[in-house]
Amino acid sequence: MYEVFRYDWDEELRLLLALLVATGMRLEEAVELTWDRFNDTEYQGIRYVSLLSTRFEEVNVKTQSSVRYVIIHQDLELPQVLETGRLFSFRHGEAGQRINPVLETLLNNPRKRVHSFRQTFKLMYRGEGVDEQFY
Q1: What number is the average pLDDT over the span 8-15?
Q2: pTM, entire model
Q3: Residue 123, Cβ neighbours under 10 Å: how many?
Q4: Rounded to whole angstroms, how far apart are CA atoms 7 and 15?
Q5: Count of alpha carbons within 13 Å of 16, Cβ hemisphere only?
């Protein structure tokens, strides 16, 4: 991880990577986030994004068990919170195309992809005894 975050990522990619590492979200779940799904007022001191569809927005998730609230650690610095619009400007597939070649080079391993962050996150949670329904 140190090697990955020492790299000179642009600000948006660095934020995306930090969000993936800190939440275990899938890449496309994070890339498609909108500010409409962000909440920092319902529970004092707890920030989260909703991956639940509403009557206003259909959320694209891989599986039914992926429908969840994703807590965002208080130390993760987000850009200025807006009322609407997307958190990231990437087109579908673009973020992975920009991140994966850098990871392959940095880690000297062609199998390391951005999705590896999710796998590491899940293994760490399982090791701590966290129920799988929470990630």
Answers
A1: 96
A2: 0.82
A3: 10
A4: 13
A5: 26
Side-by-side strand order, sheet with 47-50: 38-39, 47-50, 69-72
Which of the four pLDDT bands, split at 50, 70 and 90, describes residue 127?
A: confident
What the block records as the tokens of 30 is 């994070």
What letter does residue 135 receive in the DSSP assignment? -
The one-letter amino acid at 100: N
DSSP assignment of 35-93: GGGEESSSSTT-EEEE----SS-----SSGGG--EEEE-TTSPP----SSSBS--PPTT
Compute the distance between CA of residue 15 and CA of residue 59 in angstroms, rounded to an integer: 21
* pLDDT band (50, 70, 90) for residue 133: low
For 81-114, the pLDDT digits (tens) are 888 899 999 998 999 999 999 999 999 988 888 8
Identity of the amino acid at 133: Q
CA–CA dist 56, 92 (Å, integer): 21
The one-letter amino acid code at 110 reads P
Contact 49, 38 (CB under 8 A): yes
